[in-house]
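Lab manual, section 2.4: Encoding a predicted structure.

Procedure: take the sequence of the chain (90 residues), apply the prediction step described in section 2.3, and record the output as structure tokens. A sample record is shown.
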Amino acid sequence: MLEILLITSIVIVGAHIAADELSYTFTNGEKGIGDLLPNKWFKPVITCPTCMASLWGIASAIIHGLTIFEAVPLILALAFTNTLLNKWLN
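Recorded output:
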């Protein structure tokens, strides 16, 4: 389950950083991804790596066929790992 955690976390944080960089690129450095997308819908999808753990952790658990008892610790560990990776990479 550790490899699922690490791969999912790297993909989540990578997607967040890529979306943020693309938003700065196409707005000439004026707006970040949080300014372009409404937070109500996109916070758990792309704008907040810690919040992304809930949605993408459930998707990862379903894809890998994990039970609910394995999915809950995975989601909590994803939130922690995403926070650390985001602080380290930004």
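Check your result against the sample. Helices lie at 2-26, 33-36, 39-47, 49-63, 68-89.
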